[in-house]
């Protein structure tokens, strides 16, 4: 039979308290806008999704 001595090592740590909410909406992580790199990645993703969508109808 297995002993219960090592069980405390296997239990996960308690979850942290939920973040404070204001009207069921949590606060934003950051209020900074997108960077130039973010905008570039978005444009590249738009192109990829556009061509994938178009390829469905060929």
Q: What overall geometry do the principal axes of the alpha carbons give? A: elongated
If strands are numbered along the chain, what order do they take across the biggest sheet? 1-2
Terminus-to-terminus distance: 63 Å
Fraction in helix: 40-55%
Task: Determine the structural class based on helices, strands and strand pairing.
Answer: mainly alpha
State the major sheet: 2 strands, antiparallel
Q: State the order of secondary-structure elements, H for helix, E for strand.
A: HEEH
Q: Please report the number of helical segments.
A: 2
Task: Give average pLDDT, whole number.
Answer: 81
Q: What is the strand content?
A: 5-15%
Extract low-pLDDT stretches. Answer: none
Strand tally is: 2
- Please give the radius of gyration in angstroms: 24 Å
What does this structure look like?
This protein is mainly alpha-helical and 58 residues long. It is built from two helices and two strands. It has a two-stranded antiparallel ribbon. A hairpin with a 2-residue loop joins strand 1 and strand 2 (25-26). The longest helix is centred in the last third of the chain and has 20 residues, at 36-55. It is elongated. The N and C termini lie far apart (63 Å). The mean pLDDT is 81.
How would you sum up this structure in a few lines?
Residues 1-40 are annotated as: Disordered. The chain has 58 residues and is mainly alpha-helical. A hairpin with a 2-residue loop joins strand 1 and strand 2 (25-26).
């Amino acid at each position: 039979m297995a002993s219960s001595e090592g069980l405390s090592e296997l239990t996960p740590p308690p979850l942290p308290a939920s973040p404070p909410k204001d009207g069921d909406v949590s606060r934003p992580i950051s209020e900074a806008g997108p960077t130039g790199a973010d905008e570039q990645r978005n444009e590249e993703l738009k192109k990829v999704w556009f061509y994938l969508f178009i390829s469905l109808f060929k």
